Amino acid sequence: MPILRLILIAFFMLLTVQPATAQGALVAFGDVKQDTDQPVEVEADSLAINQEDGTAIFTGNVVIAQGEMRLSAAKVQVYYHGETKKIERLHATGGVTVVSGDDAAEGQEADYNISTGNIVMNGDVLLVQGQNVLSAAHMTINTKTGTAQMDGRVKTILNTGN
């Protein structure tokens, strides 16, 4: 009977902790900090360039690599800085996946600001880190610090045993 009582106490403690952690979670992301000064390599099935608004649209099996980080999506729009012509940001849609080291995140869309190193993912975000899986509505990855902030009804399963 004492073992059952301990199990019930532990279970109720977990239930009371979950709503507080559901507000947001800060987690590590990737094995190394990303160097946002590295070149960005892009592969896709097609490319359309708009000289008027300074954008390029890659479609079909888009894979973008910068150092150890990979981003893949169905479509990625690239925005260039008006004066320097350097890539300012990327907007990816359609089954977006971001991989860094052993960590992988999926979502419906992502915005990557090259200068800040922030990737904001939205829409049923799923983060996989080894055997750990977290889900949320939004996630902001800071590639310079190697961290991620998850917000919007964060959910995970905590394994307490072997």
Give the helix level as a range of percent: 10-25%
Number of strands: 11
Q: How many H/I helices?
A: 1
Order of helices and strands: HEEEEEEEEEEE
CATH architecture: Sandwich
Distance between the termini: 23 Å
Average pLDDT across residues?
79
CATH topology: lipopolysaccharide transport protein A fold
CATH homologous superfamily assignment: Lipopolysaccharide (LPS) transport protein A like domain
Total number of distinct structural domains: 1
Query: According to CATH, what is the class?
Result: Mainly Beta
The amount of beta strand, in percent, is over 45%
Describe the main β-sheet briefly. Answer: 11 strands, antiparallel
Please mark out the parts with pLDDT under 50 across 5 or more consecutive residues, or reply none.
1-22
Secondary-structure content class:
mainly beta
Shape: elongated
Radius of gyration: 19 Å
Describe this protein's structure.
The protein has one helix and eleven strands, in the order H-E-E-E-E-E-E-E-E-E-E-E. With 162 residues, the protein is mostly beta strands. It has a single domain, classed as Lipopolysaccharide (LPS) transport protein A like domain (lipopolysaccharide transport protein A fold), CATH 2.60.450. 22% of the residues are buried.
